[in-house]
Amino acid sequence: MLNIRSSLRRDLLTWLKMNPTRRIWVRGLAQFIGADPTNLSRELARLQEDGIVSSETEGRQLYYWLNADSPKVASFFELLGKSIGVEATLAAVLGEVRGLESVFAYVPRSKTHIPAEIKLLLVGAASENKIDAALNRISGILGRPVKHHIFTQATLQRRMAAKDPSLKEFWRLKPISLKEKK
């Protein structure tokens, strides 16, 4: 597994992987993933040199998209392994939220193998404002809506023991390991 140390590169590659058919301009993408447009433009230029993304100018706007026709793309994403994607994004962003103890993610599969939405079960006593900000950031990076439940450890154990039907997607899931807080 390749480790991507640049959060910009990780977020950009995750967005491209989750949105393989979307064309987007730099400022729009920068807004989604919460990045500086200048740095994002440089990253996109590097990925274009490597044949991972393509671009086209329409009027005065330059649009980028994943170059899915390139033979490099599949092997590139395979090489990246679990360094990008849903789990890596959740671990990185939610790992920064103090008070979160664990996260369970249910990612339903669709016909295109790209989830329509992400469902999370958050355990802990974190600030609602911090959680909302983190979930908005995750939604932007993944390009998907994020729905969530939040419980304390005791409440979760009680509801899981009672086989709460509203939590049935989460009954057999393992928690995502949150990255260490700095």
Name the features.
single chain; 182 residues; Arc Repressor Mutant, subunit A; GMP Synthetase, Chain A, domain 3; 3-stranded mixed beta sheet
Task: Give an overview in words.
By secondary structure, the chain is of the alpha+beta class. It folds into two domains: 7-82, Winged helix-like DNA-binding domain superfamily/Winged helix DNA-binding domain (Arc Repressor Mutant, subunit A), CATH 1.10.10.10; 86-170, GMP Synthetase, Chain A, domain 3 (2-Layer Sandwich), CATH 3.30.300. The protein is 42% helix and 19% strand. Strand 5, helix 6 (128-142) and strand 6 form a beta-alpha-beta unit. Helix 5 (86-94) runs antiparallel to helix 6 (128-142). The longest helix has 15 residues, at 128-142. The protein is elongated and about 55 Å long. The model has no long low-confidence stretch (mean pLDDT 87).
Q: Secondary structure elements and their pairing?
A:
Blueprint: H1 7-18, E1 24-25, H2 26-33, H3 37-49, E2 53-58, E3 61-66, H4 71-80, H5 86-94, E4 100-106, E5 118-124, H6 128-142, E6 146-151, H7 153-161
Parallel strand pairs: 5-6
Antiparallel strand pairs: 1-3, 2-3, 4-5
Query: According to CATH, what is the class of the largest domain?
Result: Alpha Beta
The amount of helix comes to 40-55%
The description of the largest β-sheet is: 3 strands, antiparallel
How many helices? The count is 7
- The string of secondary-structure elements, in order, is HEHHEEHHEEHEH
Overall average pLDDT: 87
The CATH architecture term of the largest domain is 2-Layer Sandwich
Q: Over all CA atoms, what is the radius of gyration?
A: 18 Å
Strand fraction: 15-25%
Would you report the number of β strands?
6
Tell me the CATH topology of the largest domain.
GMP Synthetase, Chain A, domain 3
Question: How many domain units?
Answer: 2
- Give the structural class: alpha+beta
